[in-house]
Design a protein that fits this description.
This protein has one domain. It is built from 9 helices and no strands. The longest helix has 37 residues. It binds protoporphyrin IX containing FE (HEM). Protoporphyrin IX containing FE binds next to helix 2, helix 3, helix 5, helix 7 and helix 8. Protoporphyrin IX containing FE (HEM) binds next to helix 2, helix 3, helix 5, helix 7 and helix 8.
């Protein structure tokens, strides 16, 4: 069997996930730069968070994709690397939000009143740290293969739900406001939706597919076909809505 820890095998395993991360990172950066007209740590923090959320979504989608469509078998083995890159970005996002943007997010805003989005974000981070530290062969041998898989599978699902609660509770009001009246006048393109809203829709579809897939293969396939059509449609309608508000 080939050694999994040689530089060649590591670069083979991390290459495609890093490409995906890079493409998402650059796309979201350009989008937010043109939407707002500037780029700083506040903006890049949104990108760490958004890319991490998308990568976690991909980790959760690759399992059902592999079970339902044979072409996806070749990609399922990238889940671990995608998860690790997402974890690193999520931790950077948590640390930056807590300590490096005091003018936007003062520490007192987290620890003063009961701040549910923060609590969900923090608990999600704790879950992710726990999963990260057992994501190796040594831990798998210690815990036992079956239990280890169960912990990994449920850990990532629970962390994803916690991240959704973190984002949806925090952003729901501003998303509804955007659909009603568009973005703030300070934006270069207030008619464009925020990146968080686009990521939020993607997360909602991940949850939808995972829920429907649990009822069996046929509903799972239908959920995929529906989502492949409905998610782009939601994005198109969202952009049309923004255009209509400002026309
Ligand atoms: C201690 C942990 C965490 C803290 C303190 C934290 C803090 C924040 C803050 C302050 C925002 C608002 C950012 C803004 O509006 O510019 C935010 C948004 C967000 N967070 Fe977290 N977060 C944490 C953990 C996480 C984790 C683990 C994820 C996983 C991916 C995550 C994903 C997101 C996403 C997707 C957004 C929306 C960004 C946007 O609107 O563009 N957060 N978080």
């Amino acid at each position: 069997m080939e050694n999994q820890n040689t530089p060649a095998s590591i670069s083979r395993q991390y290459g495609p996930p890093l490409w995906v991360t890079g493409i998402l990172f650059i796309s979201l950066s350009l989008y937010l730069f043109f939407r707002r007209g500037y780029f700083d740590l506040y903006i890049s923090n949104k990108i760490y968070a958004g890319v991490a959320a998308i990568l976690f979504g991909m980790v959760l989608l690759l399992g059902p994709l592999g079970r339902l469509f044979s072409f996806a078998d070749n990609y399922v083995h990238y889940r671990k690397e995608l998860g690790i890159i997402a974890f690193i970005l999520a931790v950077i996002h948590g640390v930056v939000s807590l300590f490096f943007l005091p003018a936007r997010f003062p520490l007192s805003s987290y620890i003063g009143a009961l701040n549910w989005p923060f609590i969900f974000g923090l608990v999600a981070t704790v879950f992710l740290i726990a999963i990260f530290f057992i994501s190796n062969e040594k831990a798998m041998l210690m815990i036992g293969g079956k239990t280890w898989w169960r912990i990994q599978n449920w850990g990532i699902r629970i962390a994803f739900i916690l991240v959704m609660l973190h984002v949806f509770i925090m952003k729901w009001g501003s998303w509804i406001k955007w659909y009603r009246a568009g973005g703030s006048a300070e934006l270069v393109h207030p008619e464009w939706p925020g990146a968080g809203l686009l990521v939020g829709w993607f997360m909602a579809f991940v949850l939808f597919i995972r829920l429907i897939e649990s009822f069996g293969k046929t509903p799972g396939r239908l959920a995929w076909y529906f989502s492949a059509f409905a998610l782009p449609l939601v994005y198109i309608l969202t952009f049309i809505r923004g255009g209509l508000i400002f026309s």
